[in-house]
Amino acid sequence: MLQKIKNVPRKKKALLLTLLFTTFIFTAAFFTLSDPQPVTEIISPVLQEVQKTSQLLTCVQRLVKRGDTIINALKREGIDHQTAYKFFTEVKPVYNLRKIGAGKPYALFFSPDKELLKFRYQLEANRYLEVLKNKPANCFKGKLVTVPYDIKKEVIKGEIETSLFESILDCGEKPELADLLASLYEFDIDFNRDLRKKDSFAIVVEKRYLKGRFTSYGKIQAAEFVNKGKAFRVINYTDPDGKNAYYHPDGRSVKKMFLRCPLPFMRVTSGYGNRRHPVLGFSARHNGVDFAAPSGTRVRTTASGTVIEAGYHRGRGKYIRIRHPNRYISNYYHLSRIAKSIRRGVKVEQSQLIGYVGSTGLSTGPHLHYGLRKSGRFINPLRLKSPTKNPVKKKFLSQFKQYAARHFLVISGSRLVNIPKPVQDVLLSPTPATLQPSNPVGLQ
Ligand SMILES: [Zn+2]
Question: Band of the pLDDT at 414, cuts 50, 70, 90?
């Protein structure tokens, strides 16, 4: 794109570059809002150079904090209360920012003299609120923008050679897809430790394109993961009441009371997670399972509950104990650090960050000691049959099963295209004649 500019007189060239840059900074900011890719993947290196030298707009990207208001969010960026309030009321006819949702991304664009000129707040995957400052009229003007994505449903299949992360990359996909997949299976499979060579996966996922270029993943619609010969299938389903969740084909929710592992999925290429570091199995004397992991790895609560201890002990090092419903207690030892808000009496949600892996107390290297007790007795967390909640409602079950059957037919159907390398085929039509719900072929 820059080559075209070569023969333009210098002044015009500068102007063009500025324009180009402005377009790009906005596009880039938008992309980062719409997907978790870093900006660097979107702006070409040349334009990054331009960005460094430019004095145009500064972009600040944030996520809405829990319990936050737009006025407080703006004030934290140095905007005075009056302006923040004016912003809120002038945007209100277009969108009521009182409904600002925790965890959603937004971006602010400031002039060099720190004036807020532009604001973007992501509403849905393909829709955002944009607010522009009209300087002459001194007012904020909001509008809702829909991004004209092309959405393609694709089937991505692969086999584990070394790690899930690497297999996903081998399929030509982005790391985010591995994260998405791992989050679907975090109640059943620990992708850091449970994987074996020749495990396989098939994923039906929506991919969003803008002007022919991939921008981000939508939801995984269905997936099958074969781990040690056992197939785990999950499907996304919205029932007629509008409730959307992931289920197993028999209607059970994928969500369980406990996560399989307190550590998050790690993007490693070496494979088999901790196999190189021998992992002590569970024994009653040892009272838990050791997960070897780099110091600083995030530690999550495996189930919702209340912190009953968070402190230091000579043997356990920095440690946390959490009480859960049904007389369960979970322990997390040898942490390098306990997360800020975690102290006795605090309520925590499943998967919440509580601390970081370390080697404090009696420990020979960075690892997490994770223990679980039920009614006072230690149990093996890896063998736990964790209860599931909220299955598909009975009255929707037969409809759900037909829906699931259709999707898994797509997965098993495309298995016929058996090429040694991972296959990716775009689904052209969603329901050809052979995929009628009355035809149960393909369900195993
Ligand atoms: Zn241990």
Answer: low
Residues 6+ apart with CB under 8 A from 229: none
Residues with CB under 5 A from ligand 1 (ion): 290, 369
pTM assigned to the model = 0.68
Ligand 1 centroid to Cα of residue 370, in Å, is: 7
Domains of the chain: residue spans and CATH = 3-146 (3.10.450.350), 150-255+390-435 (3.10.450.350), 289-379 (2.70.70.10)
Ligand 1 midpoint to CA 290 (Å): 5
Strand order across the 424-426 sheet: 244-247, 230-238, 213-227, 200-210, 150-159, 424-426
Alpha-helical (H) ranges within 42-135 are: 45-53, 70-76, 81-91
Question: Separation of 193 CA from ligand 1 center, angstroms?
Answer: 16
Q: What is the pLDDT, as a whole number, of residue 139?
A: 93
Q: Please, what sign has the CA dihedral across residues 166, 168, 170, 172?
A: negative
The CA 381 to ligand 1 mean position distance, Å, reads 13
Average pLDDT of the residues of the chain: 79
Q: Where are the alpha helices (DSSP H) in 7-77?
A: 10-34, 45-53, 70-76
Q: Which long-range contacts (CB under 8 A, 24 or more apart) does 137-145 make?
A: 139/86, 139/90, 140/86, 140/87, 140/90, 140/91, 141/90, 142/90, 142/91, 142/93, 142/94, 142/95, 143/94, 144/94, 144/95
- pLDDT per residue over 53-68, tens digit each? 345 788 888 888 888 8
**Integer Cα distance of 219 and 238 in angstroms:** 12
Dist. CA 259–CA 267, nearest whole Å: 18
